[in-house]
# Entry
Amino acid sequence: MNTIEIIQESTPNQSTTYRAICGEKQALGISPGQALDELEQQLTNLETNTLIVIQRFVPDRFFYQPQYEKFQQLINRLHKNQDNQQLLSREEQQELEELTAAELAAATERSREIWANLKNQET
# Structure
């Protein structure tokens, strides 16, 4: 199964764009749906079983503002470098991997909290 991640990005002129990512394939759009539609045109029939994750990525009590800002800087630099067929420095790549792991842990905690709230509503 493939996973498509849709992330919100800010451009230098402060407009918002969305990037849909599936493995090595990427597409941009002015809405999550447009980015997904653009990416879907790149996918083959073999890539039909796909999980779509739309990340409403904002700082919170699980992933703090400084982490969020640094992650945004690094992910924007990564995408810019990829567009120019360049790599991040080893240090930047390591920091991005650490922040990605921290955000994954934060997402897990958010999910646990949502699940607990849903279970409490049932009782």
Remarks:
- The first helix runs from residue 32 to 40.
- Residues 42 and 99 are 29 Å apart (CA to CA).
- The helical segments are 32-40, 65-83, 90-122.
- The beta strands are 2-10, 16-22, 25-29, 50-55.
